[in-house]
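Need residues for this backbone.
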């Protein structure tokens, strides 16, 4: 779940532990709590960082794929 402070174009990136972007999704999200489906079936097991950018707002979280 994402808590968006504003509506607008949103860039969601998944980065591996080396900092390389391995998956990117662009979506038009409204303000408030939102959910986005990410297809991670092509990613190997490991720890990833999710970076969500909307305007000047940036949110980060971790993703563990078993």
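Answer:
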């Amino acid at each position: 779940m994402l808590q968006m402070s504003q509506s607008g174009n949103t860039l969601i990136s998944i980065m591996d532990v080396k900092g390389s972007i391995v998956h990117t999704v662009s979506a038009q999200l409204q303000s408030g709590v939102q959910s986005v489906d990410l297809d991670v079936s092509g990613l190997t097991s490991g720890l990833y960082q999710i970076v969500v950018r909307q305007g000047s707002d940036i949110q980060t979280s971790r993703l563990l794929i078993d």
